[in-house]
Amino acid sequence: MNLPDAHTHPAPAASGTGLRFVCGTSPADWEQVALLAERDGNVTPFFGIHPWFLDPAAWRRDMRLLEEFLTRFPKAGVGETGLDKCRRGIPGMKMQKDALRRHLDMAARMNRPVALHCCRAWGSLAEMLREYPRLKAILHGWTGALNPASDLPSEDWLLSIGPREMERADIFTSVPLHRLALESDEHPEVLPDLYRIAAQALRMEECRLAGIVTDNLSRISPP
């Protein structure tokens, strides 16, 4: 069974994994992501700067390098990027929002999807996304913080549920199927268990669930 993985990082895939969105988090791992994409046709690369790795002295220069990678890989997405109010010792909201806006502007201009991290800043993130109604995005690590019907007007914003929430049966049923994605994040080995648990919660066969998620990821993949 080809299980799609909506958000992961450079690492060997679990057996049976299909389409993978592999995200870089800073210039330090972009070449590794690029190499995976060149070797594996199932990999869609994403390049971006995670708020944890935002360098106040270098991020503007790194954005120029980011555009070079996106030009080099016309099928690549933007990310992982986003907002984080949880982690200590990282740049504050102003710089995070400035950097995120640069990512979103680039994604909108180049017609690329965005992989988004968010911790305790969903309201701020949703407010920024409303300025980009045509943007395609995956909200990674979905915890149920927003109402999909009222807070996410774009039909091309997917909600990706990962290992941390896999024991919450209610979260799978709270997401409309046309928005649903499943991810391994940093634990590719748990992907089969995640699909098994999600399929049970949704009362459907795993193969049907894998098909739905594959269709959703394909819908927002770069043209």
UniProtKB/TrEMBL annotation:
Presence of keyword Hydrolase: yes
Pfam families in alphabetical order: TatD_DNase
Keyword vocabulary terms for this entry: Hydrolase
GO molecular function annotation: hydrolase activity
Record-linked Gene3D superfamilies: Metal-dependent hydrolases (3.20.20.140)
Sections of the chain in a coiled coil: none
Top-level taxon of origin: Bacteria
InterPro entries: Metal_Hydrolase, TatD-like
Matches recorded under PANTHER family: OS04G0577500 PROTEIN, OSJNBA0020J04.13 PROTEIN
Protein name: TatD family hydrolase
Lineage: Bacteria, Pseudomonadati, Verrucomicrobiota, Verrucomicrobiia, Verrucomicrobiales
